[in-house]
Amino acid sequence: MKKIIPIVIIVVLILSGVGTSAYFIQKTPTQKLETKSDTILFSKPIITENKQGYLTISLKESNAALQNIGEPILPVINRKYTFPFGTTIKNVQITFSGNTQYTLSKKIVLTPAPVTSLNGKEINDNSQKENEVVYMSQNLYPEQSYTYSLHAGLEQKNHVIILSLQCYPVRYLPAENLLYAAGAVSINVTYEPPEKPVVFTDKYDMVIIAPEKFSKDLQPLIDHKNSHGIRTILKTTESIYTEFSGRDQPEKIKYFIKYAIENWNITYVLLVGGKKSIFFGNWGIEGPYTPNDNLWNVPVRYNTLLDSSGEDGCLTDLYFADVYKVQDGKIFFDDWDSDHNNHFAQWTLDAKDILDLYPDVYVGRLACNYNYEVKIMVNKIITYENSGPEAKPWFNRIIGVGGDSYDDRPPYGDDIYEGEARSQIAFDYLNNNFTDVRVWASQRDTGGLVPNTGDIIKAIDEGCGFLYFEGHANPMLYKTHWVHEYNWTNACTGIRIYDMCRLMNKEKLPVCVIGACHVSQFNTSIFDYRKNLKDPYPTPECWCWKLTRLVGGGAIATIGYTGLEWTATYGWDNDDIPDCIQYFSGYLDSRFFHAYGVNGVHHLGDAWGQAISDYLGRFPGMHSAWDCKTVQQWLLFGDPSLLIGGYS
Predict the structure, then answer these.
(1) Alpha-carbon gap, residue 407 to 218, rounded angstroms
(2) Closest CA to 518 of 28, 51, 118, 140
(3) Could you give the angle at the alpha carbon of 603 between the alpha carbons of 598 and 418, nearest 5°?
(4) Domain boundaries, the chain
(5) In 3D, which of 332, 326, 303 has the Cα closest to residue 315?
(6) Cβ atoms within 10 A of the Cβ of 316, count?
(7) HSE of 572, CA atoms in CB hemisphere, 13 A
(8) N or C: which end of the chain has fewer CB atoms below 10 A?
C-alpha cells in the first residue's frame, strides 16, 4: 500500500482546483498574426513513498513523466498543437503562476535504466545509481520550466506543422529537498499562417519503388490498388538514380519521395526490395559504418546511434518517411545529417544529429530478394483485400503471446509478467469487437495455451486479425521465459523461422506486431553471420520478413524492431500501471492497437504512423537516445496502404 507522506506547505496556492483547459484562437488586427492560447490549472501534487524508500511525485493533470536515467522522475504536461503546412511560429510564451513550496522528507525517486537482452543475457541493472551531479545540485531540476520543438508531419493525411510542448509544473531543488509546484500555466503561441494554403497536386496516393526487374510482377498489385481507389504508380530505382541527386542511393530515393509529395501528393511509399542475395553481404554491426548500396535491390539507411549495450547502429526505414524538418521558421528537406559529417542519425558520446522524426509519408517495405517473393506478396495482398471482415469469421480474434520476460521481483520491482501485460493492453484497445486468445506462460499448469512452438502454431492456424508477440528474440527466433524462471535451458520454446513452414493458416492472415530484439533485422545472410557477434546464427532471412512472405500462411504484414528493443520495468514510479506498457517499446506497440481500436485508423501505414507520432508527442525523440532509437527501428514489412481486414 502506498504511504501518504506528510508535507510542509510554505506558500499557499494562488490558483488551485482541478485541471481545466481553455482554448481559443485570436487574430491580431494590425498584423497577419494569430494566437493560440491555452490555460491549465493544476491540482496539488500527490507525494507518496515507494518500496525503495524514495518519494514519488504525481499530478492529476500530467500525461507523461520526465525520465532521464539516474535522475528524478517528475510529472510532465505534454501539449501538441498543429498548424497548416507553411505556418511560421513567431513566439511561444509560457507563464507559470501560483507556485507552492513543499519541504520533502526524502529524495525523489530516480529513473531506472530500461532493460534488454543480448545473446541470451539480460542487460538488466538492478543496482540503479543516482546521478550525483543532479541529486547534490543547488539548481532547480529540470533547469527549464518548459521545452518545445517544431516539426513537420501528417495529421489525418494532411501535412501540418507540429509544435510539441513539454511543461514542467513541478520542479525539484535536490540539495535543499524542496519541491516547487505551479498552480497554473498560460500558453500563448503566436504564429503567421501561410498567405495561401500549401496545396500539392493531387495525382497519386501511393508510389511503389522497386528495381526494374520486379516491375512486371508488381503490375497486378498496381492494377488492384487502382481498382480500390488507391491511385498507385511504380517508380524504378534505376530511373531515380538517373534523375535525382544525392550523396548515395538512399538519399536519392528520399529526394524522389520529396518530389512525389510535392508533385503527386502521395501518402504511401512501398519499398519493394531487400538484399540481392541471402548468401552474402554485410549485416549487423558492419552496416552503419560500412554501408554498401550494391548489396540491395532497394537500399537501406542505418542510424549511427550508440546505446548502452554497445550496439552502434541499426536499420531504419523511418529515414524515408521523415522528409521534412522545421528550422529557423522554415521547412527544409531533412537529410538526417545535421552536422554534415556523412554519419546519418548519429547519436554518440561526441556527436548528435538533430532530427525531426515525424513521418511525412507512411512507408512499408517488402524485403524481396527475388522475383518469386514479389509474386508471393502481390498474391497475398490482393487475396486479403478482396474480401472484408464480414467474410472472415476468424478476423475478430487477437492472439497475444508472451511470458515473464524480465526478473523484476521485489525488492526491485512489481513482479509484472511483461509479455502478458503488453498483450492485455492490446486486448483492451480492441476489446469491443475482438475476442482475445491468450498464449501465456502463466497458463503453464492450467491446460491453457502457452508460448511453446506447438501451441503458437495451433493458435495461429485457427486464424486471427491481429497477432502480438512480446519476449526475447534474434533474427532467427522468438522465445520467452516461464514465470519466475529466468534461464534459457528450460524456457518456452517459442517459434523459429525454421518452424514457420509448419504454419497452415493459409489465407487467414493476421497483422503481426512483435516486441522483441532484432526480429526485423533484414540485412541477414547465411554465410556472413559470423561477422555479427550479437547474433551468431546462419539466418537467410529475418523472423518478421519470413513470417510475412511465407507461402501458405504466416502474416499479411509484420511490425518489429531492427535492433535491440528496450523495455521499462521495476515500477519505481509507484503508479500501479506496469512500466512495460508506459514507456519505450511497450508504449509504441500499444499505440498501434490504440490507433486501430480506439481511433478507428484502419489503413496499416496510417496506424503505424499514428503510433510513432503519438510516441513522439509523449517522449520527444531528441530528449533521449532510447526514445529516438525506439521509433527509428520500428519497421513495417507490408503494404502501408493495406486496408486492415480488406474491402467489403
Answers:
(1) 47
(2) 118
(3) 50
(4) 3-192, 206-347, 394-637
(5) 303
(6) 25
(7) 28
(8) N
Q: Cα separation of 611 and 606, whole Å?
A: 8
Measured between alpha carbons, how far is 434 from 465 in angstroms, rounded to an integer? Answer: 9
Residue bearing cell 527466433: 477
Please, which residues have CB within 8 angstroms of residue 139's CB and are 6 or more apart in sequence?
Answer: 173
Please check whether residue 365 is in contact with residue 334, taking contact to mean a CB–CB distance below 8 angstroms. Answer: no
Do the Cβ atoms of 353 and 337 come closer than 8 Å? yes
Is the separation of the CB atoms in 522 and 541 below 8 Å?
A: yes
Task: Identify whether the C-beta of residue 607 lies closer than 8 Å to the C-beta of residue 613.
Answer: no
C-alpha span between 560 and 636 (Å, rounded)? 7
Cell of 155: 495529421
Cβ neighbours of residue 613 closer than 8 Å, sequence gap 6 or more: 153, 154, 162, 358, 359
Residue 527: CB partners within 8 Å, gap ≥ 6? 279, 280, 538
Q: What pLDDT digit, counting tens, does each position of 363-416 carry?
A: 999 999 999 999 999 999 999 999 999 999 999 999 999 999 999 998 878 899
Cell of 464: 486471427
Tell me which residue has cell 481500436: 597
- Is the fold of 3-192 the same as that of 394-637? no
* 3-state secondary structure (DSSP) of residue 16: coil
Q: What string of H, E and C letters represents the secondary structure of 168-183? A: CCEEEEHHHCEEEECC
Residues 6+ apart with CB under 8 A from 55: 5, 47, 48, 49, 104, 105, 106, 107, 108, 109
- Taking the C-alpha atoms of residue 150 and residue 90, their distance in angstroms, rounded to an integer, is 12
pLDDT in tens, 513-561: 999 999 999 998 888 766 665 556 788 999 999 999 999 999 999 999 9
Pairing of strands 146-155, 158-167: antiparallel
- The predicted pLDDT at position 127 comes to 53
Detail the DSSP E strand segments found in 553-625.
Answer: 557-561
| Domain spanning 3-192, CATH architecture | Sandwich (2.60)
Considering the segment(s) 206-347 as one domain, its CATH architecture is 3-Layer(aba) Sandwich (3.40)
Strand pairing category for 33-41 and 184-192: antiparallel
